[in-house]
Amino acid sequence: MIDSVVIVGGGTAGWMTATYLKAAFQDRIDVTVVESANVGTIGVGEATFSTVRHFFDYLGLDEREWMPRCSASYKLAIRFENWREQGHHFYHPFERLRVAEGFSTADWWLQLQEELGEFDRSSYITPWLCEAQRSPRMLDGSLFAAGLDGSMGRSTLSEQRAQFPYAYHFDAALMASFLAEYGRARGVKHVVDDVVEVNQDERGWIESVTTREKGTVAGSLFVDCTGFRGMLINKTLGERFESFLDVLPNNRAVALRVPRDPERDDMRPYTTATAMGAGWIWTIPLYGRNGTGYVYSDEFCTPEEAERTLREFAAPGQDDLEANHIRMRIGRNERSWVKNCVAVGLSSAFVEPLESTGIFFIQHAIEQLVKYFPDKSWNPALIAGYNDRIAHAIDGVKEFLTLHYHAAGRSDTPYWKEAKVRALPDGLAERLATYESRLLDEETIYPHYHGFEAYSWNTMLLGLGRAPATARPALAHMDQDAGRRGIAGIRKDAEALVRNLPSCREYLSTIN
């Protein structure tokens, strides 16, 4: 039996891994986190997928318990501003499309678009809630989509059947501290010290790590959560890193923490991604501050220009705010599991913050680690299976994010002009060719699990201004009023929710 796991590195990745493994295996596995007090976390992974609820439910955590501790807020969607053209925006929501007469409301929108408004507000209720800054929960705590509420217990991403309507924003440093406290109370050992040496046996497998003051920590399985450094997976084991900069060129970011009064200022229940001249700016509203940052390519913008642009955009007149400049390693390891070492988080892969995939990659990795957990035979088929699952998910996200830039309507700067002619990942050109004649479906998007469904692919393409040449011909022979009724029902439901739901700020003030 493998009876001991040593996690090198803390932060969100390290403590999500530690608490999840402890929840899965209880006292049958010894879990130790070794982290340095001198190495800070990147701390920009503050937005999530709606599927992160599986993680919290697995640990038995109610959101009212951890949200106030982590300055957390709700995320119903991502609002994309200026990606098609200056002044235009649309929402990518956590909401599946409805169906009328066997066709999605997106298909009906293409058929009836001359008499309808924007695609997102015609096809989803979420944009209406976002515009009105509504909470997804009533003041009594009940969810507006009551049938989706309640704990799912020890479920995983693969059991996701219905689309839960919201995710979270949270302070990554506070989340790591909360999970560290939670983990230590449940038996996770915590060694705070610098790792000065990684010790290997004659096969090259990791035996232990030596710390500066606390001695040697030995284990059976090692998890590398050391971030972009890849101390174990890359520096010790020499695993090759595959860069994605040929298709996703943003390799730097600069971030600010901008204070906000939660009792006075409005609370937007969405992440905003605003296209800029050489990249885009994220705005993530936490309870008490905004997290904001400019993601850019240093081929088109200097760090000084990026910081100046960000300050003018997000914090004019607040020159005392400290800027955090970040070099991002864009791509993935050829294998995330090598010998007896598994890389989780930034040490495994990163594809830039667009679409908030960082926390998702951590969650997916630790779920798969539990499913493929080894015994002392170290079955190569288990390790290969894990590596395939991880690589497929990352490569699918790579395709999906590349689509954002390639399909964006903007072409007003050298950065955006280059985005139209840059190479595409294998398979994406074929999918876009299919899309010219019809919306994509589960058979025509990236074929392996990667966290995004067909509705997300279609929502992004339509929102960015790219639509199939025509609606499906069959719709011309269908009852047009059925399509109109389906879309009218969305607006009716949305207007009722806007009337009845409290504001996001109002609800969050009751749990903080």
What descriptors fit this protein?
single chain, 512 residues, alpha+beta, seven-stranded mixed sheet, six-stranded mixed sheet, 16 helices
Please sum up the structure shown.
The chain has 512 residues and is of the alpha+beta class. It contains 16 helices and 23 strands.
Portion of residues within helices: 25-40%
- Main sheet summary: 7 strands, mixed
Provide the gyration radius in Å: 23 Å
What gap, in angstroms, lies between the N and C termini? 44 Å
Strand content: 15-25%
Regions with little confidence, pLDDT below 50 for 5+ residues = none
- Molecular shape: globular
Please state how the strands of the largest beta sheet are arranged side by side.
Answer: 5-4-16-17-18-15-19
Count of helical stretches: 16
List the helices and strands and how they pair.
Layout: E1 4-8, H1 11-25, E2 30-35, H2 53-58, H3 63-66, E3 73-75, E4 77-81, E5 89-93, E6 99-100, E7 103-104, H4 105-112, H5 119-123, H6 126-131, E8 167-169, H7 172-185, E9 189-192, E10 195-200, E11 206-211, E12 216-218, E13 221-224, H8 231-236, E14 241-243, E15 252-259, E16 271-276, E17 279-285, E18 289-296, H9 303-314, E19 324-327, E20 331-333, E21 337-338, E22 341-343, E23 349-350, H10 358-371, H11 380-407, H12 414-421, H13 428-435, H14 454-463, H15 480-500, H16 504-511
Parallel strand pairs: 1-2, 1-13, 2-9, 4-16, 13-22
Antiparallel strand pairs: 3-8, 4-5, 6-7, 10-11, 11-12, 14-20, 15-18, 15-19, 16-17, 17-18, 20-23, 21-22
Helix pairs in contact: 1-7, 1-10, 4-15, 10-11
